[in-house]
Amino acid sequence: MVVDKPASAGHSDASNGKTEDGLKVTKPARPKTKSDASTDACHVSEATSDHSHERELESPTPAQDDGHPAGVCGPILTIDDVPQRIRDTEYAVRGAVVARSWELAKQLRDNPGSLPFSEIIPANIGNPQAVGQKPIAFNRQVLACVTNPHLMDQPGLFPADVVSRARSYLKSFPSFGAYSHSKGIPQLREDIARWFTKRDGILTDPEHIMLTDGASPAVRTVLELLLESSRDGVMIPIPHYPLYSATITRLGGRAIGYYLKEEDQWGLDMGELQGALDKARQAGGRVRALVVINPGNPTGGILTRQQMVDVVEFCEREKLVLLADEVYQDNVYLDEKPFVPFRRVLADLSSPLELFTFHSSSKGVTGECGVRGGLLHAHNVDEAVIEQLYKLFSISLCANTLGQAMIASILTPPEPGSPSYDQYTRERRAIFSALQRKAILVHRKLNEMKGVSCQRVEGAMYAFPRIELPPRAIEAARQAGQQPDMFYCLQLLEHTGVIVVPGSGFGQRPGSLHYRMTILPEESKLGGVLDRIKDFHDQFLAQYS
Ligand SMILES: Cc1ncc(COP(=O)(O)O)c(C=O)c1O
Q1: One Pfam match, by short name (predicted)?
Q2: Ligand 1 pocket: which of 326, 360, 375 to mutate (most atoms <8 Å of CB)?
Q3: Distance of alpha carbon 510 from alpha carbon 5, whole angstroms
């Protein structure tokens, strides 16, 4: 991850090109390049002696733009040809720890009993249905009907409200196998606009909503609007979900990190934001926007209303567009810390600030990551800019229509008194209350471990515990050529089968070490998983103390 560091950023570790917090600052050693390749594969087969090789080099064949003599064969696409911004792009959630887990999973299959654990527990990614969460029936039934309308002809197969919902979708969009409008199926956007209107108390125009294949492409497309050159920057929280740093790097922009305040439930520190912004501007950057993830990934924190007001005023003052990632708005576990939409705060302040918000079917209590439907909503945004967004989405024609139906049906659940209502409410409550209990359990058990401190999991699906490692462990990591948090997470995997993600993948303050763990493993297993982590942790400390 390449991120402009706040003033307090750490020293770089020359041995591996990373700063203490793991953010990449230099290029890694490169694999074989075009020039290496063109002197072996192609030329060796043609040049039978040193002499003929010389002749070939002296030949008058004109060079092409790419430096290859015309007609000389050789790889056209080598690692050197891949744009630097792509090579610099990093995404830790599926990094080295996950790669090693695949090897261990294979070993468990091929040679059961050869490892100190019998299964791999993926606690690295917010993918609820991969770890046993059941889908909510209503949404899936609606999708079944729009996918195969004949099912609706079978009396009693589906509840009447499922059938009427599916029929209403099909009435406006008769075949879900067709491309839809590039902003999304109009009727679904109208339903979603009504949901927004009710949630925020602000009349919502369906033309300001775009349905996407999950929040990720929505975020990428908005960032594309904002980044013109390598001078252009977007402020992102540290730690943060690395979609942002990865996409900004991929688009050739500048990620400007601002640290969250760990000791304050990972809240916002306005002095820190101001410092990061001023520093980026002094360095010649053109700062365009600010990203807030609320509830937070990987932090599990929820912003207070006052912090949100401060952010809005900051963005107004500094002329920054606000990007609010609200994909975890239904994952809110404490009554005293409710979720407040940024749009609502803007309305309360009568703010003209431009705001893009993102939502997704992947999170909440539905966890429909594989049937991804996402959306972006543009608030106070110039119509001509919305036209440009529409154009960008139209390049890929449309989002998957089933994902569109998924996010629409999630946001317009069965009404009280309708045939599906009771089952829907039961399923939703069961998932939500399990998440709530798991959030408390993970927080408590992590804090019981020596040298581990973890802020409350107020929302989202993650704990981000801070770990103090003994100097001998840091030295062992250095000798292994790994960041200390990576070393710890790899050791944890080898001993317990539990996959977590090193904090450096999300960014962390220099000198501090963390990892991200999801709260998602099944409730029946989670206590045991945490006990295994504790046993490992105690042994690790004993070994390196
Ligand atoms: C904060 C945040 N934003 C966006 C996404 C992407 O979600 P989607 O699956 O909708 O692309 C994630 C996924 O984990 C996330 O945590």
Answers
A1: Aminotran_1_2
A2: 360
A3: 10
Rounded distance between C-alpha atoms, residue 309 and residue 305, angstroms: 6
The token pair that represents 28 in the structure block? 């890694």
Residue 32, amino acid? K
How remote is the CA of residue 23 from the centroid of ligand 1, in Å? 21
Query: Which amino acid is located at 452 in the chain?
Result: V
The C-alpha atoms of residue 189 and residue 365 are separated, in whole angstroms, by 21
In the DSSP assignment, the letter for residue 27 is P
pLDDT band at 72 (very low <50, low <70, confident <90, very high): low
Sign of the alpha-carbon dihedral angle for 484, 490, 494, 495: positive
Say how many Å lie between the CA of residue 440 and the centre of ligand 1: 23
Dihedral class, residue 266 (left if φ above 0, else alpha if ψ from -120 to 50, else beta): left
Helix and strand element counts for the chain (H, E): 19, 16
- Closest ligand 1 atom, residue 125 Cα: 14
- The mean pLDDT of the chain is 87
- Name the 3-class secondary structure at 7: coil
Give the bridge partners for 209, in sequence order: 377
What DSSP line would sit under 255-292, residue for residue?
A: EEEEE-BGGGTTB--HHHHHHHHHHHHHTT-EEEEEEE
Q: Does the C-beta of 247 come closer than 6 Å to ligand 1?
A: no
Averaged pLDDT, 38-63: 40
For the purposes of burial, counting CB atoms within 10 Å of the CB of 505, is it exposed (0-12), middle (13-18) or buried (19 or more)? buried
Q: How many whole angstroms from 445 Cα to the centroid of ligand 1?
A: 26
User: Residue 237's beta-bridge partner residues?
Assistant: 258
Domain 165-411: CATH class, spelled out: alpha beta
Q: What is the dihedral of CA 504, 508, 514, 520, to 10 degrees?
A: -80
Which CATH number does 92-132+428-544 carry? 3.90.1150.10
Question: Cα(369)–Cα(367) distance, rounded to whole angstroms?
Answer: 6
> Which DSSP letter does residue 359 get?
E
Only one residue has tokens 């912004």, namely: 277
Query: Which tokens belong to 544?
Result: 């390196």
pLDDT in the model for residue 75: 82
Contact 21, 510 (CB under 8 A): yes
> Contact at 8 Å (CB) between 157 and 150?
no
Tokens of 343: 């749009």
pLDDT at position 370, please?
A: 94
Tokens of 302: 């929820």
273 close to 328: Cβ distance less than 8 angstroms: no
CA dist 394 and 249 (Å) reads: 24
CA distance 507 to 249: 15
What pLDDT, in 10s, does the model give residues 260-309? Answer: 999 999 999 999 999 999 999 999 999 999 999 999 999 999 999 999 99
360 CB less than 6 Å from ligand 1?
yes
**Domain positions in the chain:** 92-132+428-544, 165-411
Contact criterion met (CB below 8 Å) for 518 and 529: no
